[in-house]
Specification:
Ubiquitin-like (UB roll), 14% strand, 5 strands, alpha+beta, five-stranded mixed beta sheet
């Protein structure tokens, strides 16, 4: 089937097998490997991207279901922030990426792209969350290195910077 979508501001159109998961299309069809494949069962959240501005685990969505959608991956997050007028640091990262770096909110880094994408979506819904709300809001994303303390600190830091 032919599928067309906008990924990180660029139009992409290609033939895909109808059963192709969005995560595989992003990685193999579009060539953006920052979106990780973790479990293929929607348990870990490593594959989280934004589809139409909403946080989505891309292993739960078929590429054909994303027809005509605007998708943002971890590679496009900083560009999206600049386009939205959000101030970024010296690295030209999204403020959440900056907060993850400053707060040491990553260990092996495998969960980081999905965690950052979920956290940015969460802060759009709840811009001034409590620690408990952050923990609950990110419970669908797993960090196997148990780095949650610094992840929560990073989300709090990004929220404080946005207020």
């Amino acid at each position: 089937m032919q599928v067309s979508m906008t990924v990180n501001g660029d139009s992409h159109s290609r033939d895909v097998e109808p059963r192709t998961l969005l995560v595989h299309h992003i990685r193999e069809g579009v060539g953006l490997t920052g979106t990780n494949i973790g479990c293929d069962t929607s348990s870990c959240g490593a594959c989280t991207v934004h589809v139409g501005g909403q946080s989505v685990k891309s292993c739960t969505m078929l590429a054909v279901q994303a027809e005509g959608e605007s998708i943002t991956t971890i590679e496009g997050l900083a560009e999206t922030a600049r386009a939205d007028g959000i101030a970024t640091g010296e690295q030209n990262w999204h403020p959440m990426q900056e907060a993850f770096q400053q707060c040491h909110a990553l260990q092996c880094g495998y969960c980081t792209p999905g965690m950052v994408m979920a956290a940015t979506s969460f802060l759009k819904e709840n811009p001034t969350p409590t620690e408990a709300e952050i923990r609950e809001g990110l419970e669908g994303n797993l960090c196997r290195c148990t780095g949650y303390h610094n992840i929560v600190k990073a989300v709090q830091s990004a929220a404080e910077g946005a207020s």
